[in-house]
C-alpha cells in the first residue's frame, strides 16, 4: 500500500511538472508572439512613413517634369509655331519612351534567361527519387 501511495504522489508530481512545463511553454510562445507583433507593427509604421515620403517625392517629380515640359515648350515656341513646337516635344517624348522600353525589355529578357539557366542548373544538380519527374 505504501508503494501505491508513493507511486500516486510521484504521478501527481510528474503531472504537476508537466502542467507547469506546458504553462511555461505557452507563456513563452505568447511572449514571443507579442514581441514579433510589436516589432512587425513598428516596422510597418516606419514602412508607411517611408512609402508616404516616396509618394510625396513622386508627386514633386511629376510637378518638376510638368514644369520642365512647359519650359521646353515655351523655349521652342520662340523658334517654331506653337503646333510645331508641341509636335517636336511629342516626337522627342515618344522616341525617348520607345527607346527606354526597348532597353528595359532587353534587360528583363536577360534576367529571365539567367533565371531560366539557374533553374535548369538547380534541377540537374538536385538528386531525384525514383519515380520523380
Task: Report on the architecture of this protein.
With 133 residues, this protein is mainly alpha-helical. The chain is built from two helices and no strands. It is elongated.
Quick tags:
133 residues
Number of helical regions? 2
H and E order: HH
Form type: elongated
Main beta-sheet annotation: none
Helix fraction? over 70%
What's the N-to-C terminus distance? 65 Å
Q: Structural class, please?
A: mainly alpha
Strand content: under 5%
Number of strands: 0
Rg over CA atoms: 34 Å
Mean pLDDT: 86
Which stretches of 5+ consecutive residues score pLDDT under 50? none
Itemize the secondary structure elements and their pairings.
Elements (H helix, E strand, L loop, with lengths): L1 H76 L4 H44 L8
Can I get a quick summary?
With 133 residues, the chain is mainly alpha-helical. The chain contains two helices and no strands. Helix 1 runs antiparallel to helix 2 (82-125).
